[in-house]
Amino acid sequence: MKLALVGFGQAGGKIVDSFVDYDSRTGSDIVRAAVAVNTAKADLMGLENIPNEQRVLIGQSRVKGHGVGADNELGAEIAEEDIDEVQGAVDSIPVHEVDAFLVVAGLGGGTGSGGAPVLAKHLKRIYTEPVYGLGVLPGSDEGGIYTLNAARSFQTFVREVDNLMVFDNDAWRKTGESVSGGYDEINEEIVKRFGILFGAGEVEAGQEVAESVVDSSEIINTLSGGGVSTVGYASEEVEERSSGGLLSRLTGDDGGSDGLDTAHTTNRITSLVRKAALGRLTLPCEIEGAERALLVMAGPPQHLNRKGIERGRKWLEEQTGSMEVRGGDYPVSGSGFVASVILLSGVTNVPRIKELQQVAIEAQDNIDEIRQESDENLDSLVSDDEDELESLF
């Protein structure tokens, strides 16, 4: 699937920068264009893989390149005011070669959480291609203002995109881990999962062709209908062997010592499907009730077979209760691992979102109280008791 990526804000820009690096390292060829948008000049300068001409600094007349300081209302205002500057960068994207737009943002800060929904709304108004969002939730230890920002941005973002894929930092940060090291690792986890998902079906000349192709239309159909999506992933190292062709892929027997046992291959696939669906999702949730699902099995072709993928797909149908469960393989010769990636779309039983909203409501009430108390304290400080002083004007 060919994507035009737009990273909005610090987190969004870094994730898109990592996507470009992943695309180069793996040769997956999913990133057709990449743009980074920010109100902070330093954040744009810190990127390594997005071309300089595709880095857009907005809000210079308002914040002078210093960011919006976690004020996502200001972030949204600046995005509205400077949308033509962002469009100037988007105009250089060969849209006729793109299957979809993906707007990436951290939802806890100011620029990304405020600006990403504005950009998504703008892109949907102009282009016929789907516009998806990838939103990153802040950790619960990052503070009330970031939680409040995330809750408000999530509510807005999900309404402006064709589907919002969510990654929850709270489920992925490790205890005692440094902030920079933790986020670098998290970004790698993000691009690995979504890289395999969107890379399925992108076959170059001379590359192994999937037995059951997962192309862009399968992904688009799974994401259709809007709502919120999460992605599961599980992998296992395997010993790479020479492929015996289609027959060995289906039977596990190429007539030589390198033949793989079909039952073992099938069991490995079904086991990885279960681990991906029931393990750590990008957004933890109950998978029952998911409206649609897509299974992608990636790895050396001789370690993939139709029977295992079909069993995994049927198991997903049973677990989700959905009749819209698609599946296929993504052969990657020489990868050294077999991986299962599961996209669950239209999930609704998400305790983390409800918790986020409740904490945000409490934070909003506290902020209002603090502001009112601050106004009262200031008034008592500057006013004289007898009200004998007159202000200058």
From TrEMBL:
Annotated SUPFAM superfamilies: Tubulin nucleotide-binding domain-like
Coiled coil regions in record: none
Lineage top rank: taxon: Archaea
One MF annotation (Gene Ontology) recorded for this entry: GTPase activity
Entry keyword Methyltransferase: no
Residue span of region Disordered: 239-262
UniProt entry tagged with the keyword Cell cycle: yes
Any Gene Ontology biological process: cell division
Subcellular localization: Cytoplasm
Keywords: Cell cycle, Cell division, Cell shape, Cytoplasm, GTP-binding, Nucleotide-binding
Domain Tubulin/FtsZ GTPase, first and last residues per copy: 2-205
Positions of GTP binding: 10-14, 110-112, 142, 169, 187
Gene Ontology terms: cellular component: cell division site; cytoplasm; microtubule
A Pfam family it matches: CetZ_C
Entry-linked PROSITE patterns: TUBULIN
Protein family membership: Belongs to the CetZ family.
Its biological purpose: Involved in cell shape control.
PANTHER family assigned to the protein according to its UniProt record, in alphabetical order: CELL DIVISION PROTEIN FTSZ-RELATED, TUBULIN-LIKE PROTEIN CETZ
Protein name: Tubulin-like protein CetZ
UniProt organism field: Halorarum salinum
